[in-house]
Write a structure and sequence with these properties.
Low-confidence stretches: none
Largest sheet: 6 strands, parallel
Mean pLDDT: 90
Number of helices: 15
Order of helices and strands: HHHHEHEHEHEEHEHEHHEHHEHEHEE
Number of strands: 12
Strand content: 15-25%
Shape: elongated
Helix content: 40-55%
Structural class: alpha/beta
């Protein structure tokens, strides 16, 4: 026979005190409600003795708070997003929140479906790496007074809190680093996307190339082709058509991985001959031969800022009152792959 869960009424009956008193103690309000330390200890000790576990559903219905946050990214298996999620989970836990993680695969239909599901479950807030076409969905969440923070990318003109990096400056600096090391024919390999983060990275590359009077070489691969595993084919063909390249700047770490595989499979010497930089660091880049220079995003700072912005939103009666766009700096981690080559 299934054992009935213990309720706060059971505790109240056993200790001959009111249910309200038990509730105040278990919710950390004993001092605020002037409940004596002795009685507080008595309630907590007994709750521990009988292994009391609060009914989260009933608690959320009573308080209107689930203490749950949704952290939606493009692909949780991507090392950048998974590391970020792990750091944020610890920060959220310290603040009394649990986190639900999910991937939208940069697909509008899936993103909308997940947002609808979790909104129905009455989560307290959303941190979202938005797919291209869910601007209206985000705006509706804000209009419904639901806390939302956009991560990694944003919609121009939409009044929504966001935490992003300075993609344009990061890309400019990385390209300029290659130019300073005497590379002249630098290609930029990216996804075919007009989303803010990819636009910024492309624009930063183009600014650096133009400033130095060099010719731009750009390959933009349709995202759906990358999802289908066709990225390597595009990169291989591009290399075959542009034999004069002497450096490659990959706009994401997964494109860098595909590009490095192509180089190893076609001409092992090119890995040592070309200047190479990847956006977003990866542990493998530290042990690769040569080690790979990368643009590293400040994972801890991003996670901290997300919670710093989210906590006040969770307490606001109107989340549209104020909005912040926090833009953080990256770090160019210089390794062997981007150093000037010996002729």
């Amino acid at each position: 026979m299934k054992k009935k869960p213990v309720s706060i009424r059971n505790i109240a009956d056993e200790l001959k005190i009111s249910v309200t008193t038990v509730s105040f103690v278990l919710n950390g309000k004993a001092k605020e409600k002037h409940i004596s330390p002795e009685l507080t200890k008595k309630v907590l000790d007994y709750a521990k003795l009988i292994n009391y576990r609060p009914n989260q559903i009933a608690q959320s219905l009573r308080t209107g708070k689930s203490k749950l946050l949704v952290f939606m990214v493009e692909d949780i298996s991507n090392s950048f997003f998974s590391q970020l999620a792990r750091i944020f989970e610890d920060i959220a836990y310290e603040k009394g929140y649990k986190v639900i993680f999910c991937s939208n695969e940069n697909d509008d239909e899936k993103a909308n479906e997940l947002i609808t599901l979790f909104n129905f479950r009455q989560v307290d807030g959303f941190i979202i790496v938005p797919s291209p076409g869910i601007r209206d969905t985000i705006e509706n969440l804000i209009n419904d007074n639901i806390p939302v923070i956009l991560l990694d990318r944003f919609y121009e003109g939409l009044d929504c809190n966001s935490v992003v990096i300075d993609n344009e400056q990061a890309s400019f600096d990385a390209t300029q680093h290659l130019i300073d090391n005497k590379f002249k024919n630098i290609c930029f390999i990216s996804t075919a996307s007009d989303q803010s983060q990819m636009y910024g990275r492309l624009h930063g590359y183009e600014k650096a190339v133009e400033k130095n009077g060099l010719k731009p070489y750009v390959l933009q691969i349709p995202f759906e082709q990358i999802i289908k595993g066709k990225g390597k084919e595009y990169i291989k063909k591009f290399f075959e058509q542009n034999k004069d390249l002497d450096a490659v700047f990959f706009s994401t770490n997964y494109l860098a991985q595909s590009g490095l595989e192509v180089l190893k499979e076609t001409n092992q010497n090119l890995i040592n001959d070309l200047g190479l930089i990847a956006f977003d660091d990866n542990d493998m880049f530290k042990i690769y031969d040569p080690t790979i220079t990368s643009v590293a995003q400040p994972l801890v700072e991003i996670s901290s800022k997300l919670m710093e912005v989210m906590l006040p939103l969770l307490k606001k009666k109107d989340v549209s009152e104020t909005h912040q766009k926090i833009v953080l700096k990256t770090e160019l981690i210089i390794r062997e792959s981007s150093l000037a080559k010996q002729k």
